[in-house]
Structure formats: structure tokens, C-alpha cells
Amino acid sequence: MPAKNPQPIERKPRADAQRNRARILEMAKQEFRRSGASASLEEIARLAGVGPGTLYRHFPNRDALIEAVYKAEVGDLASASDRYMASLSALEALRAWMLLFIDHVAAKQIIAPALNSIAGGPAKLFEGSRGQVLGAIETLVRHAVARGEMRKDIESSDLLRALIGVAHMAADPDWQESARRLVDVLIAGSRIAHEG
Asked: For position 10, what pLDDT does the model report?
């Protein structure tokens, strides 16, 4: 009998802990976008509906929280490729992911001051995320080629370079709209030309 009671007790805190962690990350993302690296961790905890101790149990310091926010964003971007492939045509899945990538770049630019505050800088963090992003777009491109919707000579890195190039014009207030138009141009240019 005693062995059965701890099992339900162990599961509930784990689910609660996961929910707390997710809420903290969501509120931290919003606060870092709004206030940069100087965002108050106590305010993040309050907005997440947890005490400061709970925040520090999950994220022992500011750097750990900033890194976790960025990694969660990259993880969401990478996993979106599978969701899109399951629900959209191959080229539409690629288009949807590229539009999401633009949103990711915009968010990264907003949170950049917080990322730059990480001890040692964000280079390692960016390097680790590059593989996830490349893997996601490569999967989408291979899928579109295999489905006969996309030219075989298009490289996934070419598509990323084009989008990142537009993002470097971030001083232009319309860069995101320009990038969204570029996605449609890239998708149109990637289609297999059907003779008719």
C-alpha cells in the first residue's frame, strides 16, 4: 500500500513543474522583448504566477533563463517543420516555415540585448541552434523535392541566406513585410515549371 501513494504524488509536481517552467519561459520571453536584459526576474516570476524561489529552482540565474528562452524559441521553430508537413502541401509547408523563420529573426533582434548580456556572449548559443534551423529547412526542401513540387537545384541554405540578408536590413521599418514578399518570390521561383 505505501508504495502506491508516492506515485500519484510524484506525477502531479512534475506536471506542475512543467507548467510552471513553460509559464516562466513565456513571461520571460515577453519581458525580455519589452525590457531587454534588464527585465526584472521578480516581475517575470510574478507574471508567471510563481514565486521567485520557483523561478530560481528552474533557472538559477539570469543567463540560464535567457538561454532557455532562446533555446525554446529555436526548438519551436525546428519542430514546426513536422507540423507543417503533416497539414500542408510540401511547398506550402516550406512557405509557412519560412514565414515563421522571419518572425523568429524579428524576435531574436528584439531579444538581442538580453542574449548579448550572457557571460561569454551568445556565439555558442547561436552555433548550437544553427544545426536545428538548418535541419528543419533541409527536411522541408527534401520533402518538397520528393513530392515533385520543387526544383532539385534549390539549396535550403540559399533560401536561408536570402531571408537572413533581408533581415540585415532591420533598420528599415518595413523589413519584415519585404521579407514576407521575398518568401513568396522564393517559393514561386522554386516551383517546378510545368509545360502547358
From this structure: 46
d(CA 172, CA 168): 9
Question: Domains of the chain by range and CATH?
Answer: 1-60 (1.10.10), 71-196 (1.10.357.10)
C-alpha cell at 128: 548550437
- SS3 (DSSP) at 120: coil
Amino acid at residue number 76: D
**Residue 150 bridge partners (DSSP):** 191
pLDDT one-digit tens code per residue, 58-74: 999 888 898 888 888 89
Decide: 132 and 75 in contact? Cβ < 8 Å. yes
84: how many CB neighbours lie within 10 A of its CB? 21
> Could you tell me which of 46, 39, 165 has the C-alpha nearest to residue 110?
39
pTM value? Answer: 0.78
* Residue 114 Cα to chain centre, angstroms: 16
Strand locations in the chain (E): none
> In the structure grid, which three cell numbers stand for residue 1, read together?
500500500
Which residues of 59-175 form beta strands (DSSP E)?
Answer: none
Q: Which of these, 188, 76, 172, 179, lies nearest to 132 by C-alpha position?
A: 76
